[in-house]
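Backbone-to-sequence.
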């Protein structure tokens, strides 16, 4: 679901193309600490991913392109965000810790 932050309108979407190369919302993975489920992005942010999604994050690699999304589903209280991995066509929920 994609949400317009100005109007609150929601629409269902399917990811068919990746984000714009070097766009302001385009991020990529610099490093992953698999044992602690921490994903480090090129903008300096650090994301603690949910243990529920460990098997997903364990397949991710440095340089994978990601989009930051909002988790409005399960466990959204402790994991308010999601990282959508464009290369793997999947996502994992988590929280930005830095």
């Amino acid at each position: 679901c994609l949400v317009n932050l100005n109007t609150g309108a929601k629409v269902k979407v399917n990811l068919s193309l990746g984000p714009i190369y070097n766009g302001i919302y385009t991020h990529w993975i610099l490093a992953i600490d698999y044992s602690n489920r921490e994903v480090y992005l090129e903008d300096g942010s650090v994301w603690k991913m949910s243990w529920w999604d460990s098997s997903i994050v364990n397949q991710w690699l440095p340089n994978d392109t990601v989009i930051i999304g909002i988790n409005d589903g399960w466990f959204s209280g402790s994991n308010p965000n999601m990282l959508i991995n464009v290369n793997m066509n999947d996502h994992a929920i988590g929280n930005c810790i830095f």
